[in-house]
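User: Predict the structure for this protein chain, please.
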Amino acid sequence: MASIWKGSLAFGLVNIPIELRSAVREDHIKFRLLHEDDLSPVKYERICQTENEPIPWSEIVKGYEYKKGKFVVITDEDFEKAALTTSHSVDILDFVKEDEIDPRYFDMPYYIVPSKGGEKAYALLRDAIVDREAVGIGKIIIRQKQHLAAIKAVGTALTLEIMRFANELVDPSEYSFPKAHSGTPQERKMAMQLIDSLTSAFDPKKYTDEYRANLMRVINAKLKGKKVHLKEPEGPEQDDDVIDLMARLKQSLATKRGGRSTTRPRKTATRTRRTTTKTASRTHRKSA
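Assistant: Here is the predicted structure, written as structure tokens:
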């Protein structure tokens, strides 16, 4: 893969020439928008709202709307001026323990690849990070935007993970969540037993994109002029009524242990009382 950024990684007074290369790849099925009548691809155009005419990229500039309908134009030189010298280097500001970082801060990973002449310093930094079980925290400017960045060691590679700044995280207090320990001790015990029964070593290869696979089956069938019949996966029985939590936990444990639970989860007390009332009413009519 081509590099998306070239510069240096500053480790104290040591500067390591590096390149950033993507550590992930998208595997999405891509679609084009077509005109329904003749299946011709739809063309996107940039229309000037004043002239109502399409305009070329060469006549497009970036503007900041400081007031409704009022803009100030920002040029490439302005972006460069704001970036100063930091646009070509990543300075490690601190080293921290990874478990001290809220996972919500992490966003996109890249491989840090040493450029020619930087291999020795690269290996030194990587090995030191491994020995100290640390994560380097720095800043980087990519595509005219500054990001917080975490430098980690993954095997023999160093990675840079784009991070979010603190002001980009939504405070949990903006939402309402259940209080801690809201269940009964017995319910919590069974919930922990259920987690224990589902616990295994993480193997990312066992998790596959079933939707993508099914979509490709549909596409291939349509290409051949055939119909495809997809089997619905078996899942837990859904019910609009509130299910008794204890009954659901018991059923989950029974299923996980190898046996299928044949007992349906008990409904709430409201549903039970309603059923009991109906039964009593029928019994009374028979007696009469």
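DSSP finds six helices and nine strands in the chain.
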